[in-house]
Amino acid sequence: MVGLGSAGMTAAQAAPRFGLRTAGVERARVGGDCLWTGCVPSKALIASARLAHQMRHADRLGLEPADAPVDTARVWARVRAVQEGIAATSDSPQRFREAGVEIVEGSAARLVAGGRRGRGVTRRVARPDAPLAVEVDGRVLRARHVLICTGSRPASPPVEGLEEAGFLTSETLFTLDRAPRSVVVLGGGPIAIEMAQALARLGVSVTVLEMGDSILARDEPELAARLATRLRAEGVALHTATAAQRVTVDEDGAKRMHAGEKSWAAEEILVAAGRAPNVEGLGLEDTGVAVGPRGIVVDDQLRTSRRGVWAAGDVTGGPLFTHAAGFDAARAVRNLAFPGSSGPADEVPWTTFTDPELAHVGLTAAQARERHGDDGVEVHRMELADSDRARAEAATDGAIVVITAKGRIVGAHVLAPAAGELIHELALALRKGMDLHELAAMVHVYPTYALDLQRLAGEAAYARGERVRFLTRLVR
């Protein structure tokens, strides 16, 4: 496999178990975006920011608030320590070597035409089924299968003056020694919103500019709007329907973002406005691997247009999540070992790790009505203000929303503490085509947020008369 990030590492773990002789090519560090610039550092930062916020608001739980100053240099040092700990254990290159994977380090890897061993290498492919090889800094690796897992990188929007002024991305934010004093965030997706809240909680002055009408546009609008209200209450200056136009630099060195007649100055600009697949320099155009606007084109088995070449993870333009990349990489290995053995995931859940977390799987209410019609769609809601666990923890700002079409669950959205944990039960229910009464019939622990799923399901089932019929069948 080419690339040892989330997808490549999963493939490297799986391939030797199928008896495949395996080599993994990596140009930088094993672990990829998730360990070094994405999930791990951002969640470590969020944890520190959440505790700082809880300390300042301890009176909500009957304790004395402690508004201690935050030394962000110590926070950043902890982030690096967490990364290094994972790099030395779970993501250690030695761990993969011990599993039988050869780690090949090289700054440049590309597909080339290669005959059988001993027949040399050429730059051009004469036949669509000609053997391929991977060339890494002059070394040629011949294989029956090549799995491309090169991931993605932050996209840079075409804003006048942005490149000249300089900016941060998720790839450079965690290389700093400490947080900037102020920041303008470009984007309103999960990365932008997570970092905006975390930085604000650490004492950074934060302004968010989102060109769309709302943040987190792929989530249930009602819950995204409630989260936006929470961000503003915590001091984030959130501006939607605002398109950044140009950047200038003030005399004091501050970077000023302009949008129409308005402008905002900050020490740094954080760009979190989408990602681009890493397809450059791989020799794809010379070897017949098709590339589309979103990345390498694959079928439902993760095969590319070139025989023997597979791709998985962000480079294919699918859901840009670590869990999706790992899932697809495992599928690719199963399919190349046992053709056609593993199909695509039905639905991929995701979570924005704000406080409260916002998670969802499947359709929004509007999407469900568009697909299934108004008559067959029902929206079921449980407010955390009615949750015993939420009241005990002073965390009542949230809700659970489940969408059904003709009784079957087709979408679920959760704004709550640990929403990322709750969403899996709902994802399984959706995958299995379950009715709400099936959730209601399963015993849940009290007091948990998961119990609120059962309450929602029970009340909805009772309203439809399903519960009565279910109990009648049990008695019989």
Overview of this structure, please?
- With 476 residues, the chain is α+β, with helices and mostly antiparallel strands.
- The protein is 33% helix and 22% strand.
- It contains 16 helices and 24 strands.
- The radius of gyration is 25 Å and the shape is globular.
Present the secondary structure layout.
Blueprint: H1 6-14, E1 22-26, H2 32-36, H3 39-56, H4 72-87, H5 93-98, E2 101-105, E3 109-114, E4 121-122, E5 132-136, E6 139-142, E7 146-148, E8 152-154, H6 162-165, E9 182-186, H7 190-201, E10 205-209, H8 221-233, E11 237-239, E12 246-249, E13 255-259, E14 262-266, E15 268-271, E16 275-277, H9 284-287, E17 291-292, E18 295-296, E19 309-311, H10 322-337, E20 350-352, E21 357-362, H11 365-372, E22 377-383, H12 388-392, E23 399-405, E24 408-416, H13 419-431, H14 436-440, H15 449-463, H16 466-475
Parallel strand pairs: 1-2, 7-19, 9-10, 9-15, 10-11
Antiparallel strand pairs: 3-4, 3-5, 5-6, 8-16, 12-13, 13-14, 17-18, 20-21, 21-24, 22-23, 23-24
Helix pairs in contact: 1-10, 3-4, 3-7
